[in-house]
Amino acid sequence: MLSTRLTNTDNGILSNEFIPENIRSLIERRTENNKRFGKLEILTPQIEATAAAAAAPRNIIAGFLLDTSASMSGTKIEHARDTIKKLVEVLHSERNGNTIEQQPFHSWIYVISFNSVANVIIPFQEITDETLPGINSQMDTICASGSTNYAKAFQKQNDVIEDIITRLNNPDQESAAAAAAASGQFHFIRFFETDGDITEGSSNATLLYNMMRSVKTSATATATAARITYEDVILGYGTDVNLECLKKLASPYAPENEYNCSSLVTIIKPEDIGWQVGEILFKVIMRYGSNVNISIAAATAGDDAARAELFEYQTHQWSSSTTLHSFIHGDNKQIWIQYTPGAATAADATPRVNIQIQYENQFTGETYTYQFAHDIQNVVVDVDTPPPLSAAIIEKTITLLNGMVQIEIFKQFREIESTRYDKDTIVSEAYKTMRMLKTIDAMTRAEFPTLSCQTLNLMTDVKVIIGLTTVENQQEQNIILHARRICSAENEVFNTGATLSRKYVENEEEHEEEAKRVIKAAAAANDDATAPTDYVDDYYESDALPSRIESISTQLVSHETDTPFYGGGGNHYYNHYHHTGSEVRTLCVKIAIARANNEDVTAEQLYEQMRAAHHHHDYNEYDAPCHQDDTFSSTPMNDDYTQRRMGMMRRMS
């Protein structure tokens, strides 16, 4: 069964000398006004060998809606076809319990193609040694033409599902599906593969969301009906997908909550397919529960004003509840929390919080609810305790520091997407975060390998943020952001955005102060009327992005009212500056490369070269040399659980 563990701290942690100086201001913000910051760990049980041995085969129906409109022509349709073929191959291999020993899966398939109309390409059939060759050859005949009509696709799928359920509920029908229905459990995974926008039919997201999930009641009214559960996965190909619409369609909760647990998988490059789709299948096979809701409430006696909150990583706000797509067997899910005492909370009180976790079983549809209570007991280090401190204390403390830094990273992701700040500001915040993480890494690398891996993963997040400032296409930027935020928050074992992270040049952040000094001096010397001198002054004095993001903005906003880093220069400069790269970052990169190569050149000379070469301020050309395979995260790979997970993704690739 589930178990939980809570670790937290208040501002008393600042009394410890081992806390790095460049992280103290962040700790102060997270623990101001007597707040407590903590980590809630949710631990799911491993699959027991005895239980797996006794398990009956699990029945999965993989249904595909494949967009075959004209925009899918060429490599997109090839990749989409290959994705289906590889999914079928891996599902078939699980008949013998390839991932979970002695846990067989029986799988069925149907494929519907759609453009202006929808047609059944591969009718409902079991995936077996005999049917596999025919499925693959039929997939090779699919080509692309016509318009894109989502509504027609969902209508056709509903008709196909109604027919399948009728067959499952027919006891007189001699088929493998009817025989399997005697066990009473089938799980539908409905895959929706598309590359772009709707060009025909309804584009109402709420209507389409309901059509996508509707199942006619007549098909389930039979007394002998098999138990059916469903989940939906959307595969979006390329950079021209309608991200707003697809995120809404991919939400397991409601179309208006597109930021909650989206199952949208965005695929920009063909090498993305294997890792991401492999992860989807692994979660299906290893899933402990789905549609997870976690809530928290303060339970401090005599103080109704006390407040306990969870950090909702997708909306980047503190809330009384959050949602997760699923729990995996053997997983350790981390949720960041904060507790704010009320005015009536006694100074020496031990606050308490109540946790409620609710989830569904994907194969039975049953809902489970767990209640937990935790005392808020801080990580305590006696100021009189001589070094060395205990390993347990250091590990708990550094984990909390990493949590505080991760929240800053999520906010930076959010601000890139909302376009509230120019790219120099985002780069400056990313540099500050990188310096914090390097300080933490220096403290943990030798003696705490697991902590070091967590820190390195956060560094990859920061490198992705820096790389994102070089992406001029806003749609492409947001697609990468969507994938990276999900990957980071869900603790995936592969690194979405690895290509962008490689744009980071080692130690480029160490030259930020010098780069800013040179740029400011050049602007003053040239009496550049277009240079935002006041903005630069405010920029230097700023310490951090706002600690709480109160709204999700998708519009370009006036810096005069909403962005505290601007003192002048006008919106004209901001609009131009946002859509180009970061001048500060480019100069930092030039300085870092020159220093690494022992070149005899000053920062001023590098800046003059840069300005001469880029009259239009296009600062996006630098990629760092990469000599390592960073497809997978730096999480330790020696446990059986992770090896199985990686094995599934490698088979998909």
Query: What is the name of the CATH class of the domain at 60-286?
Result: Alpha Beta
Radius of gyration over all CA atoms, rounded = 27 Å
Q: What proportion strand?
A: 15-25%
- CATH-wise, what's the superfamily of the domain at 60-286? von Willebrand factor, type A domain
Counting helices, strands and paired strands, the structural category is: alpha/beta
CATH architecture of the domain at 60-286: 3-Layer(aba) Sandwich
Sheet with most strands: 6 strands, mixed
What is the third-level CATH name, the topology of the domain at 60-286?
Rossmann fold
Average pLDDT confidence is 81
* Total beta-strand segments: 15
Low-confidence stretches: 532-579
Terminal Cα separation, in Å? 33 Å
Q: Give the fraction of residues assigned to helices.
A: 40-55%
Shape: globular
**Sheet with most strands: strand arrangement:** 5-4-3-6-7-8
Task: List the total number of helices.
Answer: 21
